[in-house]
Structure prediction request, 274 residues.
Amino acid sequence: MAKLRLGSGEHKKLFCDEFRNTFRTFEVRDIHWPRLDEATIARLRAMPFWDEAVKTERVAGARVRLMAEVERDPMLREVIAMQSYEEGRHAGILQSLLDHIGVQVRDDLSHKQRDAEWGFLRMGYGEVFDSFFAFGLFRLAGETGFFPPELMEIFDAFMDEEARHVIFFVNWAIYRNRNLKALKPWFGIRRALGISIQAAGRMRTALSMARGSGAGEDFVMQADAIDADVTFSRLARTCLEEYQRRFQKYDPRLARPRLVPKMVEYALRVMPSG
Ligand SMILES: [Fe+2]
Ligand SMILES: [Fe+2]
Prediction:
């Protein structure tokens, strides 16, 4: 396999092609939700994060769309617009499931207006961090029987799309950093800030989980909702495995996010044994 220089035109073509070639054409109305038993419906209805989940996808769609509008490179613009479509479809899939199980969510779309690039950077690093835990929690939800297998199948494809977004985003950020000339220091600062803001919040939560102090943040709540016996160490190891597995199918020459697994490996080392 020919060596690839990150930041080159060839690199851009590769990460855009990987995204385009794995795009799935389907519409929300093509999904046929399985009949679920009462206990499963009750369990799903009781999940505390539906409002937040739908809103996150809607806001992601809006932020990514804004970035597609200002992107001047046609190849990047096309792919960013595809991602925006997928985020909107994610919101639609969640909404459709909620209609199926009879959950009403707030129709709240309010979010801070941001400069397009800053919004895309914050959203992108948000996905880099959140998907790490989401992939692991998703597997645990299947293993513990919390999520019925029929739903696992539908949401597996959803998770794969998020993995694609992450791969695209980390490669886009490298490409952009290496190709901005006059504005390079400014982009570098924004990028570092975007990473730091996400990292600080997630590290705090991870460490509080390791200490067992039960911080009430989103994925702690999700882990608790899935199974009270899921320890930090089991969750962390599952997340590490899943993060690696989901990215395996992409060209090995593309960059992968490394910071989050390193942070979690560190948390695993410093956490009190037992
Ligand atoms: Fe999404
Ligand atoms: Fe996404």
